[in-house]
Known about the structure:
Number of strands: 13
Mean pLDDT: 94
CATH topology: Glutamine Phosphoribosylpyrophosphate, subunit 1, domain 1
Strand content: 25-35%
Amino acid sequence: xxxxxxxxxxxxxxxxxxxxxxxxxxxxxxxxxxxxxxxxxxxxxxxxxxxxxxxxxxxxxxxxxxxxxxxxxxxxxxxxxxxxxxxxxxxxxxxxxxxxxxxxxxxxxxxxxxxxxxxxxxxxxxxxxxxxxxxxxxxxxxxxxxxxxxxxxxxxxxxxxxxxxxxxxxxxxxxxxxxxxxxxxxxxxxxxxxxxxxxxxxxxxxxxxxxxxxxxxxxxxxxxxxxxxxxxxxxxxxxxxxxxxxxxxxxxxxxxxxxxxxxxxxxxxxxxxxxxxxxxxxxxxxxxxxxxxxxxxxxx
Length: 300
């Protein structure tokens, strides 16, 4: 009996730093690896080197001068894991995966998450600001004005969706959160249903942007639920963002939320509240790969 050829694999990632994230993920997908491994590998790249200082230990601190990290991961069998407000963990995305696979829980936070990282023998470092970030924090302390700049200070995430050649789908997100946030603030990234969501036999969605807007509306779940009810991924992103704008009282021109969606047939969606949101799409087809940066459709 002749077996069906493996399907083309797809990887989506938010923002310009999605390109190096996708490059790492494509190496895994090209050799037939899993979507779960791919999104973790992509996220780890940006955790080590994020040019806009919104991910990983090199990210901008909170208003107390402390870097706190959030991350989550989810597979198409309904499992998920997340960590929030954790300090010093080099790869919070890998810690989130260990929460998913090695504990009965979905979310660990703060000192408990850090303790679990040490138990898992994951790398934990002294939580120390870079010289550049400390300079920026001390400059902020002069006036202590908190006003995130659209597409600069409030996209704060690398979020990924992958569909592998065996037809499995996974999502991941990791961030250091908003610059100069209140200590202990947690955004949408580590919350399944808010920053990421995967629905078996339907597809998945991920978000980026001002997390409070997404948390109040469970944006990733709403987009995935739209697909469950028959919407195509692009339609689902746009409908979910309209709900985000409707349910939040703030002027949509003052914040950004971007959204990506992917179904099990490899169809994609990408949209944002306003202009400026770009994303990377990588594909594996046979022996060929591609990795391209695109601008998402915007609604206002």
